[in-house]
C-alpha cells in the first residue's frame, strides 16, 4: 500500500468514525442515548418514590417525618425533617441548573459577540455548577448526620428505610454529576471547550437537569406533603 | 464533526440569557410559595393543600424540562423518549398507590 493510499484509508476510517454518530433519524446517537437513559431513570425514581409513598405513615416506631413521637422509655423525638435547611439546598440545586444552562450557552457561543467576559466563561459556569452540586451534597451529608444523631437510621423504621434509600440514590446521582462536571472543567482548562464540543456539555447538562427535576418531585412529595 | 456544528448552529434556537434568568426567578418564586404554604396551618389542613403543592411541583418540573432541558426546542423524538417512560412511571406510581396504599383498619 502506498503512502497516499494509506492516507486515504486513514481519512476514510476517520470519516466513517465521524459518521458513527449519525442515526437514520439524523440525530446524534449520544443525545438519543442520554434521553433514553433519562427515560429509564424516570422509572427507577418512580419506583423509589412509590415505595416511599406506599410505606408513608406505616412506621410503627419513630422518629417520624412531620410528627413528634415519645418512645416507650419516655424519650421525646421532634419531627425529624428540617424544612428550612432542605429549602436552602433546593434553592442551591435550582441555581445549579441555571449555572449549567449558562455554561452550555457559553460553550455553544464561544467567540460570538455578546459572549465575552463572564458570560462566555464556560470554566466559571462549570465550576459554579459543580460547587452548587457539592454544596447540595454538603447539605445532604448534614441532614443525614443530624438524622442519625437524632435516632433515625436506615434500619430504625419504614420511614428511615425508604427515605434514606430514595434520597441516597438521588445524592449518588448528584455526586456522579459533580464528577462529570469536574471532568468537563478539567477538559476546558486543558484544551478549552468550544462550539464543536457543545454536544458533550449538552449531554452532561441534560443529566444534571434531570437530577434537578427529580429533586423537585422529592422535595414536594417527601418534605412538604404531610 | 458536522453534527457538532449542527448542534452549535442550533444554539440560537435555545432561550437567551435573559430568558434563563427569568426561568430561574420563576422557579425560585414557586419554591418559596411551596415552602410558605407548608407553614400555613389553615392551608395545610385544607383539601387544597396537596393538589396545590402537586400542581406547583409539576409546573416547576415542566418548566425545567421545557426550557433548561430544551425539550420545547428539540426534536420530537427526544420528547417521545422522555414523555413515554415518564407516563409509564407515573402510571406505575399511581397503580402502586392503588394496590398497596390502603391502610388496614384496626
Shape category of chain B: flat
Average pLDDT level of chain A = 88
How many distinct helices of chain B? 5
The poorly predicted ranges of chain A are: 1-19
Q: Helix/strand-derived class of chain A?
A: mainly alpha
Beta strand count of chain A: 2
Q: CATH fold name of chain A, please?
A: Four Helix Bundle (Hemerythrin (Met), subunit A)
Radius of gyration of chain B: 19 Å
The CATH class designation of chain A is Mainly Alpha
| Main pleated-sheet profile of chain B | none
Fraction of residues in H or I helices of chain B: over 70%
Fraction in beta strands of chain B: under 5%
What's the structural domain tally of chain A?
Answer: 1
Q: How many structural domains are formed by the residues of chain B?
A: 1
CA radius of gyration of chain A is: 23 Å
How much of the sequence lies in strands of chain A comes to: under 5%
Strand order of the largest sheet of chain A: 1-2
Euclidean distance between termini CA atoms of chain B: 67 Å
Helix content of chain A: 55-70%
Question: Which SSEs are present, and which pair or pack?
Answer:
The complex is a heterodimer of chains A (226) and B (106).
Chain A: H1 3-19, H2 29-54, E1 69-70, E2 76-77, H3 83-108, H4 122-149, H5 158-191, H6 198-224
Antiparallel strand pairs in A: 1-2
Chain B: H1 2-9, H2 17-38, H3 41-45, H4 49-68, H5 76-100
Describe the overall structure.
The complex is a heterodimer of chains A (226) and B (106). Chain A has 226 residues and is mainly α. Chain A has a single domain, classed as Up-down Bundle (Four Helix Bundle (Hemerythrin (Met), subunit A)), CATH 1.20.120. Chain A contains 6 helices and 2 strands. Chain A has helices spanning 3-19, 29-54, 83-108, 122-149, 158-191, 198-224; strands at residues 69-70, 76-77. A two-stranded antiparallel ribbon of chain A has the order 1-2. Chain A is elongated and about 70 Å long. The termini of chain A are far apart. In chain A, 38% of the residues are buried. Residues 1-19 of chain A have low confidence and may be disordered. Chain B is flat. Chain B has 5 helices and no strands. Chain B has helices at residues 2-9, 17-38, 41-45, 49-68, 76-100. Chain B has one domain. Chains A and B meet through helix 2, helix 3 and helix 6 of A and helix 1, helix 2, helix 4 and helix 5 of B.
Amino acid at each position: 500500500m502506498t503512502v497516499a493510499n494509506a492516507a486515504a484509508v486513514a481519512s476514510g476510517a476517520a470519516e466513517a468514525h465521524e459518521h458513527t454518530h449519525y442515526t437514520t433519524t439524523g440525530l446524534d446517537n449520544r443525545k438519543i442515548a442520554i434521553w433514553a437513559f433519562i427515560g429509564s431513570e424516570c422509572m427507577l425514581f418512580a419506583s423509589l418514590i412509590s415505595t416511599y409513598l406506599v410505606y408513608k405513615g406505616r412506621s410503627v416506631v419513630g422518629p417520624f417525618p412531620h410528627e413528634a413521637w415519645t418512645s416507650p422509655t419516655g424519650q421525646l423525638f421532634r419531627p425529624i425533617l428540617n424544612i428550612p435547611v432542605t429549602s436552602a439546598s433546593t434553592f442551591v440545586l435550582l441555581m445549579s441548573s441555571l449555572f449549567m444552562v449558562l455554561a452550555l450557552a457559553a460553550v455553544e457561543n464561544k467567540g460570538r459577540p455578546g459572549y465575552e467576559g463572564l458570560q462566555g466563561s464556560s470554566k466559571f459556569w462549570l465550576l459554579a455548577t459543580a460547587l452548587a452540586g457539592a454544596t447540595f451534597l454538603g447539605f445532604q451529608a448534614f441532614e443525614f448526620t443530624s438524622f442519625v444523631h437524632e435516632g433515625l437510621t436506615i434500619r430504625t423504621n419504614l420511614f428511615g428505610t425508604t427515605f434514606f434509600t430514595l434520597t441516597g440514590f438521588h445524592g449518588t446521582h448528584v455526586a456522579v454529576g459533580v464528577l462529570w462536571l469536574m471532568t468537563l472543567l478539567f477538559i476546558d482548562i486543558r484544551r478549552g471547550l468550544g462550539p464543536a464540543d457543545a454536544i458533550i456539555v449538552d449531554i452532561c447538562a441534560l443529566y444534571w437537569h434531570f437530577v434537578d427535576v427529580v429533586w423537585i418531585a422529592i422535595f414536594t412529595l417527601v418534605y412538604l406533603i404531610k | 464533526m458536522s453534527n457538532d456544528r449542527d448542534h452549535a448552529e442550533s444554539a440560537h434556537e435555545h432561550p437567551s440569557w435573559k430568558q434563563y434568568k427569568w426561568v430561574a426567578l420563576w422557579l425560585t418564586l414557586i419554591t418559596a410559595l411551596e415552602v410558605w404554604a407548608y407553614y400555613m396551618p389553615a392551608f395545610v389542613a385544607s383539601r387544597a393543600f396537596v393538589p396545590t403543592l402537586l400542581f406547583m411541583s409539576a409546573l416547576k418540573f415542566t418548566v425545567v424540562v421545557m426550557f433548561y432541558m430544551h425539550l420545547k426546542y428539540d426534536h420530537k423524538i427526544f420528547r417521545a423518549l422522555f414523555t413515554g417512560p415518564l407516563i409509564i412511571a407515573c402510571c406505575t406510581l399511581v397503580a402502586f398507590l392503588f394496590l398497596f396504599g390502603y391502610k388496614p383498619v384496626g
